[in-house]
Structure prediction request, 287 residues.
Amino acid sequence: MKIVGVAILLLGVAASFGCGSRSLASGVVKQPVQTGYAPVNGLRIYFEIHGIANPARPPLVLLHGGGDTIKTSFGHILPELARDRQIIAFEQQGYGHTADIADRPFSFEQSADDTAALLDYLHIEKADLFGFSNGGTIALQVAIRHPKVVHKLVLASALSKREGAYPWLWEAMAKAKLENMPKELQEEYLKVAPHPENLRMFHDKAAQRVRDFKDIPADAIRGITAPALVIVGDADVIRPEHAVEMFRALPHAQLAVLPGTDHMKVTARTEWLVPTISAFLDAPAAK
Prediction:
């Protein structure tokens, strides 16, 4: 294990969703973008492919946070990462452009299975995964349930057990309601969702997934063999101690703690994250 950066609030329901206000970085040349819908596990999953495939680098899959879309989780960092590697971003069941299945709850395990199925549909045998917030928990589940598809993991503000978040988060989740959902997230959902009238159902299912969060067994974390970069903000909704614990449990891990960074700012720290993530992904895996 190696520490690469130990010096480098959300309020209400927004904290549980792993969301924030993020826009596209300025001054970045846009790379080619393909969009489409994949028939996966009864869904039509919306996906985007940014940049050009590079034989020397596996594609990087982005897993957005709860309540988010591709844009609201990764708007700042995606164009920067796509400069020299192919990026695959998609929106989970009921999120963004992807229509919901009304009688299927949101779950981290199902989202992990959907991720693996999407990669299979795209004929991608192995990829790097970058999960933010809820997306980080999903990335862990992919590594546990579908280890053969994972090359490396970037886990930003990821939660593996309930005590890893501050108690006020769970108190807020117990009272979560649509009226407390950040306006920018509501507006983005209404803008791109195929059924905008389902906003309240979407909110309630997303909140319920967090309420129902169950600890990932420590043995399962220790069994992940893919190299991992664990990232947390020092003012995050995830306790820094939890990030350290995850870093120590993962067999091949590095740790980065971002100073002066709350949950909303984690994926907006492009000036630090892009070179750090790129260096981690491009480094030869330890033998």
Observations:
- Residues 1-28 have pLDDT under 50 and may be disordered.
- Strands lie at 2-6, 33-40, 43-50, 60-63, 87-90, 127-132, 150-156, 228-235, 253-262.
- The radius of gyration is 17 Å.
- Residues 2-282 form a domain with the Rossmann fold fold (CATH 3.40.50.1820).
